[in-house]
Amino acid sequence: MEIKVNHHSYQLEVEPQETLLEVLKNKLKINSLHQGCQEGECGACTVLLNGQPVCSCLILSPQADGGEVLTLEGLNRGGELHPLLEAFMENYAIQCGYCTPGMVMTAYYLINHLNNFSEESIRKGIEGNLCRCTGYVQILQAIKAAKKEKDSGRWW
Amino acid sequence: MISKERRILSGKGRFIDDLELPNMAHCVFIGSPYAHARIKTIDVSKALKKSGILAVLTGEDLVKRTEPLPMLSDFSGRPGWHWRAPRIYPLAVEKVRFHGEPVAAIIAETPTLALEAADLIEVEYDPLPPVLDAEEAMKKGAPLVYEEWGDNIQLHTLFNFGDVEKVFQEADRILQVSWRENRTSGFPLEPRGCLAMYEPMTETLNTWGSYQCPFRAQHYISHVLRLPQTNVRVVASDIGGGFGNKINIWKYTVVCLAAILIGRPVKWHESTREFILTGPHQRDVRWESEVAIKNDGRILGIKARFIQDLGVEISNRDYAAPSIVAACSCVPNAYRLQGLRVEAYGIVTNKSFYGAYRGFGKDKGAKFMERIMDLMSRECKLDPAELRLKNFIQPHEFPYRQISGLVYDSGNYPVIMQEALRLAEVDTWRKKQKELRQKGQYIGIGMAFVVEPAGIAAPNARFSGLVQARVRITPDGLAEVYSDRTEIGQGAERTNTLVISHILGVKPEDVIIKPVTSDTIGMGPISSRGAVYSVSALARAAKAVKSIIIKYASAFFKDDPGNIRLEDGAIYSVKNPENRLNFKELADRFYFRPGPRGLPQEMQMNHEILLDVSTSWYSPNNAQNPTTTYTTFAASADIAVLEVDIETGVTKILKYVHVHDAGKMISRDTVDGQIYGGIVQGIGEALSEELIYNERGELSTDSYADFVIPTAVDAPDIIIKHFETPSPYTELGTKGMGESPIIGSKAVIISAIEEALSPFHVRVSEAPATRERVRQWIQNGPAR
After folding, report:
1. Helical ranges in chain A per DSSP H
2. Are B221 and B207 in contact (CB under 8 A)?
3. I need a labelling partner for B454 at 20 to 30 A (CA). Which of B313, B583, B632, B738 fits?
4. Do B670 and A92 lie within an 8 Å CB cutoff?
5. Which domains occur in chain A, in start order?
6. How many CA atoms lie within 13 A of B124 on its CB side?
7. Is residue B49 part of a domain?
8. Which of B302, B433, B286, B420 is nearest to B748 (CA)?
9. What are the tens digits of pLDDT across the range B561-596?
10. Interchain CB distance below 8 Å, B189 and A99
11. Which chain A residues are Cβ-neighbours of B680 within 8 angstroms?
12. Chain centroid to CA B498
C-alpha cells in the first residue's frame, strides 16, 4: 500500500486484514498510538485519515491505501509542542495519558472545522473519545484555550 | 526532567503497548465458554503442531511448576470469623468457575498466530449449573463453587460496635432501610499487560508493565514461581489508568513463567473484553437494616445484614478481602453513632473475582449511611441538610474516635455542608422545583456527605504501613527521587516533584522521578495512600538531605546554620549572599572532594557523608491508635440538581457542586483532576455501568458498548470549592483524597433521583438507576 503519514510517504507490504492501527503501530512504529477497545467504542486509536477523525482499529489497510494520515507526532514541529498540545499540558488535561493521543486528534479536527464552538458542541464533538480519568472538565478547558491560540494566529 | 505530560504529548509514552524487546514472543489466554463446568480433557497437541506456536500452558503445567496463588488476606483463626481460601491457579485446574476463566495460555510468534491456534485447542467440558446470585448461593442445595467447602460462604462475621441493644430501646422509632449496589468496576482504557524476560547470566526474571504495585508484585511472582525475591525485578511502565484494577497480577505470573520456559521475552496485552470478563469486579453488595432514630432527627444506631457477592473468590487473585471490614467500619461516616451491629457475609458465585476498585469498601458504608440520612429526612420531615448538620461530629471533637475504632484526624464538616448549600443555591432550586412540578417537570435536589478514610494499614492482609522513600543528589546536582508511588494518572509524578522541589529549593525540572520498581519497599498507590504515606516519607527524606546540606554549607561558608537558605537551585547565606553554591557545585564537592579537609569533622564523625537518604514514615495515628486502620480522613459534600424525564427515565444533571477538604493540598489542579474524574466515574456507576450475567452465567456486558461509561456529553459542569484543614498526623498536613468524589457522586445522584420522583413515592433502593429501572419505579408506584 501507499500511504502518507505525518507528511512522509511510505510504500508498504501489508496483509489486507491488517488494520490501519496495526500498520501504523507495528510497521511504522508510530509510538503515540495505542490499542484501545479494538471495536471503535473508546476512540483511543483516533487518527486523522484524509482530514477526518477515524478509529484506526476499524479501518482495514486497503481502505487507507493512497490516503494521508496525521497523528500526534505530526502535529509537533521539531522539538516544539503544537499549541493544542501545550494547552493540554497547561490545563492539566492529562491524567493517565492513554486516551490523550486520540483525544487531541479529535480536538484538532474540531478546532479547525467546528463552526459553532459552544461548550455543548465541543462535548458532542469528543463524545466518541472516552476518558476514564478526567471527567472531561480539564480537557474541555484545554480545547477552549487552544481555540483562542488559533484565533490569535498561533497555530499550524 | 521532562514531565510525563510533555513526554506523552511528544509521542514518547512507554505504555505496555509500546514495549518491545528483540526476539519477543506473545502470550494469549484462552477462556472458558462456560460459567461452571468440569474440565474432562484438554488436548493441545494440534495447536502445538501449528507453525509459530512456541508453547501452550494449561492448569496441569502450573500444578507441576508453580505454587497455587497465595492467600493475600488471611482471617483464619481470627475469633468470630468464618473464613475460607480456595486452592487455585491462574489457569483452571479440573474445573472452571466463571465465564472466561483462563484454561490455557498460548505462546506464539505473533498475537494473531496465537489467536488462530486457540481454535485448535480441544477442551472437553462437563457443564454444571452455575450459581449467580449471592442469596441463591446461600440456600441449601445451591450449586457449590468449591465442593470441598460444603457451602458458598467464604466469609462470615459479626461487627459489633457500641451498645446497639441499649440505643434501640431508647429509639422513638425504627426505620427499615434496604440498599443494593450492583456489580461494576473501573476498567481504565488501557487493559492489563506485561513484558517478561529471564536473564540467565544473573538468573533474574525482569518484568515491565502495567504494575500498580511493583513491590507487592515481586513478592507475589516470586512466591508463585518459587524464585527467591532477589531474582525477580518488577518495573512499572507508564500505566494507562489504575483505579485499583491493576493491583491484581495473577495472569502476569503465567507470562513470567512462559518467559522462563521458552527462554525468550514474552509479552501479554489483553483486550478490553478480556479485561472486563476476567478483571477485578466490585460493589455488588446489599444491605438490609433497621435504624434506631429519635423524632428530632438524631440517629442512634443501626442493625444490618450485609451481603457481598464476591464472584469466584476474594483473597488469592487480589487483595480485596479487607474490603468487607472497610464496608462495615465506615458505616458511621461523618456522624455521631452510638451503636452499630453488622452481620456480614462474603458469598462466592460463578462470576469473575472480587478485586480492588476506587472506594474499595469504605465507599459502601458511606453510601449506605447517606441512603439512611435521606430516608430519615423523609420519615422525620426534616430538611436533609439540617438532619446531617444535627448528626455531624463537631469541629472541636477531633481527633474523634468513631465507634468502629477509626480515629478521625481533623475536619470541619458543618462548614463544608453550609458552603455546598450556598454554592448550589438550594433555596432557589427548591422554589423552581415547585413551579416546574406544576408543569409536569420533575427535578430533584440531592445531597451527600462523605468522610474518606485514606491510607489503609490493615492487619490480616498484606497491607502493612510500610513505605520507603529515597532522595539523592546526583553528582551533577539533580535531585533523584525513588518512591513506591507509581504514576497511574493520579498525579504522583507531579506532586512528588512539587514536594521535593519545595523542600530542597530546586527547580521542578531538576527533580528526577525515577520509574517505580520493586527495589523500593512500599505498598504502592492503594487506598489514596500517596499523600499520606509516600509523600510523608519523601518529605522526611528531602528534609534529611536538606539538613545535611545546611550543616555542610554552614561549615563551608563559616556561617550560622540559621542563615542558610535553599532556593532557586542555590544554597546561600542570607547574611552574606556572596556565600553561594549551586547544587552542581555542592554535589561536586560532596562526591569528589569529601577528603580529610572536605567535609566538616562533625559530619565525618556522624558518617553523614552522602547526599543520599533513604527513609521511612510510619503513621502516628496507627502508632497511637492501634484500632484505626486508616490515617487521614478527608471530607466532602456533594449537591446535585437533576431532572428526570418520567416518560423516558432519562436523567439530566442541571447543577453539580462539590465542596472538599483534603487537608493541605500539594497541587490544586491535581486535586481538582481527581475530583472531576471521580465524580464522573461515580455518575457512571449511579446511572449506567453494570456487569450483567445472563441466566447461563455469561457476562453480557463485556465491552464499552454494553458496559456504558460516561462520555463528555454525559458529564456535567462541576463547581468545586476547597477548604484546607491540615492533618495533624502527616508530615505536610496532607490527606488522601482519591476516593471521596466517586463515593459522594454516586450517592448524590441516587439521592436526587429519589427526590425528583418523590411525587410518585419512589424509594430508590438499587443502583444503577438505569432509565429502564427509573421507568419501572415510576410505574410500580409507592414504595413498600
Report:
1. 20-22, 61-64, 72-75, 83-90, 100-113, 119-125, 137-151
2. yes
3. B313
4. yes
5. 2-75 (3.10.20.30), 83-151 (1.10.150.120)
6. 3
7. yes
8. B420
9. 999 999 999 999 999 989 999 999 999 988 887 666
10. yes
11. 134-136
12. 23
